[in-house]
Amino acid sequence: MRLNTISGRFALLTTMFVILAELFILLPSLAGFRLDYLESRLERAQIASLALLATDESIALDLESELLETAGVFNVVLRRDDIRQLVLSSPIPGPIAATYDLRSEGVLQTIDDSLAALFDPQNRVIRVIGAPVNQAGQLIEITMQTAPLREAMVEYGLRLLAVSAAFSILTAVLLFTAAQRLILAPIRRVISHMTAYASAPEDARHIIIPDARLAELRDAETALQSMQQTVTSSLKQKERMAQLGQAVAKISHDLRNILTTAQIFADRLEDSADPKVRRAAPKLVNSITRAVNLCETTLAFGKAEEPAPTLSRFNLAKLAAEVIEAESLAAEPAGRVEFLTDIPPSLMIRADRDQLYRVLANLARNARQAIEATGQSGTVEIGAGESESDWWIKVCDTGPGLPDRAREYLFKPFTGSTRRGGTGLGLTIAADLIRGHGGRLDLLRSDAEGSQFCIQIPRGMAALSMRAEPAPA
Ligand SMILES: Nc1ncnc2c1ncn2[C@@H]1O[C@H](COP(=O)(O)OP(=O)(O)O)[C@@H](O)[C@H]1O
Ligand SMILES: [Mg+2]
């Protein structure tokens, strides 16, 4: 049995408490025993002296010594009517070592005296004074030896110890069994429940049903139950989401192939002889292209992670110019959104060029679309610079700011879009790509005056070596 188990602690504590309790019982009992012993000696001496007083004055010597022997004392002095009278006497074997007046001893004094008597191995002569029984005088005084007293005390103490040891063993056994039944067994039950649950947490049958009778344990069971319910239901939901994700990926894949074929045919419609068909053709092509894009982004997101960035050094201003060129072409109507840059022409940065292009294009397109949706004109500006540790790129616009919904689900897939035909994936993917560079994408500001996103990419080797490790889940 180890001491760091509940059973071990219980056994140890019980033993300690019982020993403590025994000490508390033993000391006063011993003191009481000594007092009783001395008082009975006084009583016997009184009887012996009364027997003598009743007979003639001239008493035979052998009767006197017999009386004293029976009483276990050397001599007896009685004081009646203020006359001190040596009633019985015999030779004393040594000087009187101490005098005890039982009429005036306090409790602590008695305990102290009894301990002294117990641990003094020498046989001494002592004088004991007490009050005679039945008011048969004012005082009775005897002289006696300490050895028989000590012997009786030792015997009594040992008997008391034996009895209380038996009691304490019994108590310890009872407590121990009670603890086993009342506390340990229920705890083991909870533990076995937990193990069973852990082996198949998606199985709701293993969720614990609180039934402990101990209030504290029952509380623990209730807490455990609600935790297991949460875990089980979120596991189930996760599983469903994973299945749904697979289905969506499959659908997107097939749909993209079908739509690509449709795109080819729609292209041909532009050459139709029917002018109505010719006019409708570009709109059809546009819609199909948007649908293909949706399929492709969904598929890209479905892939567990983007490939690790392939780093190269390139001129950032040139990259930004490419992004702006593409976005200006896509702008509708052309010219309402003005694109600006504020990038040092010589600024070289090290990153994955394609991935950074996608990030900037996403941010610039979002800004352009937000401005276009207001029906007013505005500007989108890409600024950049470097600090000792990072490169930073800011994409600012004078649009209406992010809608509440978009801000609430910022960087969360599929949920934050407020745009018709939007997927809510653009910002999520952009943030993922920047994280892949060991950097971060933040929304710095967004209000009625416009929005400002900031990309930070670390320049240091630490970030590079971090990127060599597998991306965190
Ligand atoms: N610069 C911006 N100004 C205003 N709203 C923005 C801006 N950028 C993003 N948003 C909002 O955030 C939403 C999510 O953007 P995004 O993740 O790119 O998904 P999507 O473009 O497919 O809607 C957008 O629908 C839009 O409402
Ligand atoms: Mg977008």
From TrEMBL:
Pfam families the UniProt entry points to: HATPase_c (PF02518), HisKA (PF00512)
Please report the name of this protein according to its UniProt entry.
histidine kinase
Q: Where is the Histidine kinase domain?
A: 250-461
Q: Which positions, given as ranges, span the membrane? A: 12-33, 156-179
CDD domains named in the record: HATPase, HisKA
Q: Which organism is it from?
A: Paracoccus aestuarii
User: Which Enzyme Commission numbers does its entry carry?
Assistant: 2.7.13.3
Highest taxon of the lineage? Bacteria
Catalytic activity from the UniProt record: ATP + protein L-histidine = ADP + protein N-phospho-L-histidine
- Note the SUPFAM superfamilies from the entry: ATPase domain of HSP90 chaperone/DNA topoisomerase II/histidine kinase (SSF55874), Homodimeric domain of signal transducing histidine kinase (SSF47384)
Listed A to Z, the keywords are: ATP-binding, Kinase, Membrane, Nucleotide-binding, Phosphoprotein, Transferase, Transmembrane, Transmembrane helix, Two-component regulatory system
List GO molecular-function terms, semicolon-separated. Answer: ATP binding; phosphorelay sensor kinase activity
